[in-house]
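Q: I'm writing up a methods section and want to include an example of the input and output format. Could you take the sequence below and give the corresponding predicted structure tokens, formatted cleanly so I can copy it straight into the document?
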Amino acid sequence: MSARILKGKEFHPNFDKISFGEFLFECCEKYADRICQIDGDLDKSETYSSVKTRSTRVALNLQKKGITSTDVVCFCSTNSLDNSIPLIASSYLGAKVVNLDPTLSVRNIQHLLSLVTPRIIFVEEESLKLIEKSLKGAKLSCEIIVFGKSTKHGTFAEMTLPCGDEKAFKPSKTDIDDTAVMFFSSGTTGLPKAICHSHRSFLQIVETSFYCGYDCRSILHFTTMYWITGMAILGRTFLDGSTRVFARSMEGEKTLQMIEKYKLTSLFVAPIYTYQLTNVPNPERYDLSSFRCLLTGGTPMSTDQYKKLTQLFPKAQVLFGYGMSEIGLLSIFHPEDDKHLIDTKVGSCGKVSPRTLLKIVNPDNEEIVGPNQEGEVRAKSDAMMTGYYRNDSAECFDGDGFLKTGDIGYYDDDGCVYVIERIKEMFKYQSWHIVPSSIEAVLLEHPDIEETVVFGLPGGAEGDVPAACVVLKDGCTTDKEEIEKFVTERVSDKEKLRGGVIFVESIPKTPTGKLIRKEAKEIAEKFV
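A: Here is the clean output for your methods example:
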């Protein structure tokens, strides 16, 4: 087969005339009596009607403060029944919404705030000091509203009190090509940037997820709204009046309990956290018959772990997706259309998403390569970001308008996509490209290893030598020599762990479970 551009299925676009806020408001009216969201930690729920009432009251109060589509409204909170309400309210007014994650450091949040300079920040009570310190460090001044109690700042509770004109409220008319939502790039290889999605592009992400076919009648997630997955799940559940269930932390047994209790049909979780599910003793104690789909992605998963998950959830499919904050979901298997491929193409991130173009390019000469040839993944769709906020993004696109993902991958003869590694995370040893994730997959097959991350350490004239940080499972005492031998027997000569094995208690990760190799490498260098 010759080189070609892969094209996802077409579908009729429904979001060419409304803003993100109008979409949310209309869905609240349409599905008024259905359960919109459930706090799995507190076992509390809320209907779409209640969401509409509370978000309308907040929107009216934000209007009184002069908030319009020119303003940035920021949020910093763990998942709760309250934290999505002012986000929805701000969208009604066409304001640009952006989220911070409470687990980030003062230094990181200081940088992110300086990028977007918000007019108002909604913050949970537990993270108030974090935000105050960050604002001071960034030399920014903006209004703070607290989820909880405060004698110094306004509170969210005050903004949800009844308003006399709430029944007449309608969302503001907004240019759908204006920025609606911003996300921050991961920052695993450099300082984060603020990614801008217009009302049009973000709703395209929402609609594309619908046409990918996975069952979202009741979906559980743990990611905060800082991540595009959290926001996309919010939009996806609104689309057809589904129920979004959330919790603040991932625990294996508790997750199985929630699947049984809320009759969950789907779950989104990073691969690293799936081990908590497969380590639950006697899982047959729980009724998991409602469960249909485990959505995962972001980091590789071993074949052995995939098999364990399919055994744990015999009525469900494990779907490994590939996406980016800059463009949403790029590829995933359709549960019905691709049923014949899901179990035979383990390791693939599926077929190209609807209304998406994807090509594999040799980054050295810009030539499009054919099937089974590795190169940089590049993509184009209506869901693509409009650019970086207050930052030139021209270098992110090629001459044909395709986004340069920075990922190395390929597609096979059946059009199934495989992503191997970030270009910047690969390194060379004896002029050979070393792919850290492929060595990690081998390490995770060792029965005593809980987590691992691989990187290159300086090895003189021959280049960087592979090394690994390893977290052992509780009670295991495997030594470094045994692990090195285990890897040596399963990899090529150039992939041997010549840089050694470093045992650590934990591995640096983003809140969604992505490995931060740069920080892990810095830890290892202290032991070398």
